[in-house]
Amino acid sequence: MSHVTSAATDDADAPRTVLHGVGVGRAGVVGPVVQVAGAPAVPGDEPGTAPGEAEAVQERVTAAFDAVAAGLRAQADAASGAAVEVLGATAQMADDKALRKQTAAGIAGGSGPVAALDRAVDGFATMFEQAGGYLAERVTDLRSVRDRVVARILGVPEPGVPALTRPSVVVGKDLAPADTATLDVSHVLAIVTELGGPTSHTAIIAGQLGIPCIVRAGGATGLADGTVVAVDAAAGTVEVDPAPEVADGFAQRAEVAARLAEDHAPGATADGHGVLLLANIGTAEDAERAAAQAVEGSGLFRTEVLFLDAETAPTREGQAATYARALRAFGGRKVVVRTLDAGADKPLKFATQPDEENPALGVRGYRLVRTVPDVVTTQLEALGDARRETGLEPWVMAPMIATPGEARDFAAAAHAQGITKVGVMVEIPAAALRADAILAEVDFVSIGSNDLAQYTMATDRLRGELADLIDMWQPAVLDLVAATAAAGQRAGKDVGVCGESASDPLMAVVLTGLGITSLSMAPVAVPAVRFAVKAHTFAQAQAVAQAALAADDAHGARAAALAALAPGVADALGLA
User: Considering only CA atoms, which of 217, 201, 203 is closest in space to residue 137?
Assistant: First the structure.
């Protein structure tokens, strides 16, 4: 939970303000605040729509929707990485027929265009929030579309990040994902928001770009433009008017990070126990960028980008070309492809699912085989084609596997297409508890720590105010990870982690000590993880892991692991 404290200064009458939130990344920066422009308000005196004007007003609103959607698609075409998915999903929302229809109904009923749109958005936002899961996250996208369309209707500048003329700390109530995706990173020192969570679109994109980010920082929007602040992602703090030595400390941390990036050795402990360090990717372009860096392959190729903004199902040929391109980029290094993780909570235009009361527990991931089996089959066929075309072997895994039977069925379907390396995701506690039986059916498993924590703790991972429950350091979650890793050791098969926890150097040591064989993360996080793992023998990493497992709560688990680290590691990485 965010809070504000006052740090002691030489001037007792002018205490230094420190805002607390949840940090994303390890870096620290000092710079001036630039506040994100707010959303345009619904005019209190907006006139209603007369019956004879409804058609003309609706045409104007449709044009505004079309312009916003076209602008977002153009930004997606020019973007890369996770930004492509974010912008495409937001453009899809601007095109949404149901939202447009509800707005048109309000106009036909006599409301002004802005009031009609606002009412329609509020209705959908309430529905999404009640549904939870991915749909709850889409509320930010939805309100971003609303704000952009309203600005077009009113003829005022669109809300969002103003043009940055110097390196700045971008601050807002909740930065829209589309805004985050199009930031001028050469002028963004850090991002600070009052809302959101550590697995929100904004946080994930910031992490991939290596931009320090603080979410849930209460009071941040009260900072005046130009106020100089120190943003410490490792500590989760925003300090107002910091002392000069703060910047010096950040500079030293940056120097350490630069030195760590020069180490291109394979991931391993000090005594040679190997741990593959892999990159998370979402597109073929991501693969080509990541492959040029010191990573040992990709542990998570999110294929949703090919599907989420598609009007029709991507063809077998089109998919195969993308998969082949990614395989060639890594040139024989390990590439783990996750089949489509979409469904009721990530709607597909070409395969709309019936409404579900709780999409997070609905038809998603491998469960699509129950409703749109052709989509799953075509993807496996395309992966088989890519394997034959390139002569390179993809590791293919299915998300949202709950039972050994599902793992068996997926393995059989993949083998039928000539795929020989087949695995599944462990995101559901049932899969972790039955890991021995599941590993008897497949060649490997990969733990999705974000969803595993969500389902274990019965806590929506997008609810920032519940961040303490969704914490990966929760002992119950660590127990399930340990059980899965132990099952992998008994079977002699790989158990990886591809959730956000893999990018935390401290957690990486714990995971290594538990017997995890690969860690997949944003490439920018690899140097610090490599250093942390390399600073310990395997026995030392096991001791760090056992210290964490023995704790009673998440805070205690992290503190125990931190205390058990090899000397100098915490200071070098700013983990304390």
Answer: 201
CB atoms within 10 A of CB 82: 25
Q: Output the six-digit token pair for 159.
A: 């809300």
Q: 166: helix, coil or strand?
A: coil
pLDDT at 383 over 60: yes
User: Which residues are tagged catalytic?
Assistant: 201, 498
Tell me the CB-side half-sphere exposure of residue 204, using CA atoms within 13 A. Answer: 22
The one-letter code for the residue type at 376 is V
- Mean pLDDT of the chain, nearest integer: 88
Under 8 Å between Cβ of 206 and 193: no
| Closest among 307, 363, 311, 291 to 339, alpha carbons compared | 307
Residue 231's DSSP bridge partners are 29, 238
Most confident of 201-205, 317-321, 450-454: 317-321
| Residue 12 confidence (pLDDT) | 45
Which tokens in the block code for residue 506?
Answer: 């401290």
Q: Is the pLDDT of residue 403 over 60?
A: yes
Strand-by-strand arrangement of the 213-215 sheet: 3-7, 16-20, 237-240, 228-232, 28-35, 168-172, 188-193, 213-215, 22-24
Contact present, 464 and 216 (Cβ < 8 Å): yes
Reduce the DSSP state of residue 366 to 3 states and report it.
Answer: helix
pTM tops 0.85, yes or no: no
Q: Which two tokens stand for residue 546?
A: 């056992």
Query: Between residues 474 and 349, which one has the greater pLDDT?
Result: 474
Residue 344, pLDDT score:
45
> Rounded to 5 degrees, what angle do the CA atoms 261, 238, 164 make?
75
Helix, strand, or coil here: 279? strand
